[in-house]
C-alpha cells in the first residue's frame, strides 16, 4: 500500500493524474458509432470540431459530405436529388460496414436520415434529429421549410440551386449553392421496421426568440413517443457550441 501511495504521489507531482481525475474533466462515455449528416449548403467540415472532440473519447465518427457540397462541390449539378443524398449516407454506412449506428441529421439532413433509416434500419441504433426537418412520407423539404416560415429558400433559388445568403465566397471551407431538387423531391417511406427505430429530437433555442421555428418538428417527435431535448444554442451548434452538443449526443441512449 505504501508503494502504491508513493506511485500516486509521484504521478501527481509530474502532472500525470489518472484519466478523468483532472478538475472539470468529462467522465468517460459509452463508446458509440456516430454518423453525422450536415445540413443544406454545408459539408462534412461542419462536423470537424465535433469529430476532433469525440474521436479521442473513443467514439467512431463518420461525417460524409453529400454530393455537390463541401469538398464534393466539384460534382454540383441541378440534377442531384434527394435520393442521391440518401445514397451517399447509405453507402458510407455499408462500405464502412457500420452497425449499431447513432444516425444524426441536422436541418435539411433530417430529410436524408429519414430516407436512410427506411433503407437500412437494421444498421441503426437510434435516430437523432438535431434542429432538423422530421418528415412524414409524402412530404418535401421545401414544403416543410415553408411551413416554418423559411420562404427565402424559394426566393434564393437560381439556376436549379439554392444560393446561401451572406456566404463568404473567399474562404474555404464555406457554404455553397445547394441543389434545389433535393428540396422538391418527395420523400417516400415504406419500411415498417424503420418506424420502430427509437429517436431523439434536439431542439435548439435562443433566448428572446420565441416561438422557435423548429418547434413543430419537436412536437411531431414527441407525438411519436421520442425524447425531446432543448439545448440553448443557435441553429448550427456543431459550429458554434461543439462541446455542449457533444455532451447532449453522449447522453443519448
Structural class: alpha/beta
How many beta strands in the DSSP annotation? 9
The CATH architecture term is: 3-Layer(aba) Sandwich
**What is the CA–CA distance across the termini?**
39 Å
The radius of gyration is: 20 Å
Number of helices: 11
Overall morphology: globular
* CATH homologous superfamily designation: Alpha/Beta hydrolase fold, catalytic domain
Tell me, rounded to a whole number, the average pLDDT: 89
CATH fold description: Rossmann fold
Strand percentage:
15-25%
Task: Describe it.
By secondary structure, this protein is of the alpha/beta class. It has one domain: 3-Layer(aba) Sandwich (Rossmann fold), CATH 3.40.50.1820. 34% of the residues lie in helices and 16% in strands. The chain contains 11 helices and 9 strands. Strands 2-1-3-4-8-9 form a 6-stranded parallel sheet, sandwiched between helices. Mean pLDDT is 89; it is low at 1-23.
How would you describe this structure in keywords?
six-stranded parallel sheet, three-stranded antiparallel sheet, globular, 253 residues, Rossmann fold
SSE diagram, text form:
Blueprint: H1 2-13, E1 33-37, H2 48-54, E2 60-62, H3 82-95, E3 101-106, H4 109-119, E4 124-130, H5 141-147, H6 152-155, E5 157-158, E6 161-162, E7 178-179, H7 181-184, H8 192-195, E8 199-205, H9 215-223, E9 227-232, H10 237-240, H11 242-250
Parallel strand pairs: 1-2, 1-3, 3-4, 4-8, 8-9
Antiparallel strand pairs: 5-6, 6-7
Helix pairs in contact: 2-11, 3-4
Amino acid at each position: 500500500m505504501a508503494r502504491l501511495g508513493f506511485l500516486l504521489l509521484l504521478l501527481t507531482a509530474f502532472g500525470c493524474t489518472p484519466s478523468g481525475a483532472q478538475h472539470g474533466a468529462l467522465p468517460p462515455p459509452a463508446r458509440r458509432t456516430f454518423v453525422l449528416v450536415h445540413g443544406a449548403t454545408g459539408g462534412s467540415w461542419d462536423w470537424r470540431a465535433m469529430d476532433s472532440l469525440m474521436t479521442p473519447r473513443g467514439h467512431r465518427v463518420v461525417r460524409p459530405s453529400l454530393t455537390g457540397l463541401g469538398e464534393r462541390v466539384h460534382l454540383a449539378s441541378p440534377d442531384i436529388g434527394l435520393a442521391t443524398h440518401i445514397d451517399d449516407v447509405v453507402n458510407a454506412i455499408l462500405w464502412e460496414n457500420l452497425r449499431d449506428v447513432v444516425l444524426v441529421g441536422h436541418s435539411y439532413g433530417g430529410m436524408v436520415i429519414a430516407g436512410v433509416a427506411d433503407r437500412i434500419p437494421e444498421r441503426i441504433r437510434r435516430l437523432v434529429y438535431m434542429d432538423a426537418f422530421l418528415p412524414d412520407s409524402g412530404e418535401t423539404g421545401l414544403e416543410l421549410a415553408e411551413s416554418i416560415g423559411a420562404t427565402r429558400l424559394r426566393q434564393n433559388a437560381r439556376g436549379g440551386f439554392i444560393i446561401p445568403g451572406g456566404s463568404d465566397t473567399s474562404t474555404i471551407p464555406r457554404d455553397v449553392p445547394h441543389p434545389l431538387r433535393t428540396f422538391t423531391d418527395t420523400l417516400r417511406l415504406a419500411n415498417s421496421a424503420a418506424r420502430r427505430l427509437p429517436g431523439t429530437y434536439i431542439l435548439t433555442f435562443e433566448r428572446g426568440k420565441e416561438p422557435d421555428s423548429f418547434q413543430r418538428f419537436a412536437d411531431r417527435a414527441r407525438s411519436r413517443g421520442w425524447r425531446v431535448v432543448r439545448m440553448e444554442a443557435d441553429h448550427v451548434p456543431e459550429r458554434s457550441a461543439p462541446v455542449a452538443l457533444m455532451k447532449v449526443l453522449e447522453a443519448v441512449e
